[in-house]
Amino acid sequence: MERDVVISEHAAASASPASSSSSFAETRVICRVCQKQFAQYTCPRCNSRYCSLPCYKGHSVQCTESFMRENVMDELKQMQPEDESKKKMLDILKRLHMEEEMESDGDESILSDELIQKVISGEEINLEDLSDDEIKRFRQALASGELSKMIEPWTPWWTKPVARSISLSPDGSQLIREVTAEDTAIPDPMTVQEPSINEIPEGPESPLPSLKQLTKTEPSPLLAVHLVDILYSYCFTLRLYNGDWRSDPLGASTVALSMSKVMGEDAKPETVPEALSACIEETCSPAYRHTGGFRFAIGLVDDIITLLSLGHNALLCALCDFRRLIQAGESMLKAAKVGKTEKAQSSLKLRGATRKLYFMTCWVHEQPNETWPSLARIVEVHKASLEELDSGSRKASRKSNPHSKVIIEEL
């Protein structure tokens, strides 16, 4: 309907030339989209000037059909049981369950009582103070995640009620707050405390530029998919470090790049299942299996859904926090004692990740609000599909190993 109206405007305008000096002056405005032809038309929604129907279609995602609305149904239709990504994920789950069965047959006791008491009491433990057997058990405990059970779990900021009421300026920057006497007072170095890691991270410190100021080419329509990869990496890193990435920025940034294929390997996944499958495969790998494997990965998918449901401002705060994490890691890398070649390669990756995060922040800022519920729905549907696959994989694993859980064995 709207498209027909625009075409009618086009035909009417081409049929009747401007009859007054004011209308003639308006035709002298350059088209905002192509910046090559004179603009003869004005968008009735945002008053943008354009020269032709193709330029009208591409002038603004807020006025034309957004990418996410057009592709939600197509994305859902692609999630078929025979999809290649599902086959790959099923193989990962089968392998993971087999390894879990093998690990469950191992020694039940990993840490000695004496070592557990030292950890609980907060005593400093050096490898030199331990026997060979204790060192072996201690490393097993680190790999299995047993020690993490002694740490009070962190509550992610995006799960708190205050996350629903984040306020930012229309240009994306932080709102100006009134300066109080406490802000101007000189802090006592002996009483200054570390900022709470449970607070909402700050948004952009300055107004965000438009995408046209950052690039001359049109943004990729796959950026919504890449955002899912980036959010997964952000949530994984924060949960792995129990919310306190500032304790080891370089280690946290290294973990983040290993988890995000978009930032770490310059991958360009084309669908949400493809992006999530790569992230979950990494989570279930030997390097990170101690975090909780598939069950932990599903929790991270829930984190993504929550962040997307919170909308525009929460996503900007998350991306800004992620960018600060990477920048802090880059700063620590300069003082790290590593080889020149390794340092140069790592620095190049971190700088590239920082630029991608900034571009993604600007892109998110320009998207219409309806983008995020649509994307959250796609992630939610794929999560249900993954849980169904996991259930089937567990059943298949039990059938292939019927004696794995024998309660009473005949002597």
Automatic annotation (TrEMBL):
InterPro entries: Shq1_C, Znf_HIT, ZNHIT2. Residues 189-213, 390-411 are annotated as: Disordered. PROSITE patterns: ZF_HIT. Residues 31-63 form the HIT-type domain. It holds the Pfam family SHQ1. It comes from Eragrostis curvula (weeping love grass). This is HIT-type domain-containing protein. The keyword GTP-binding does not apply. It comes from the Eukaryota. Keywords: Metal-binding, Zinc, Zinc-finger.
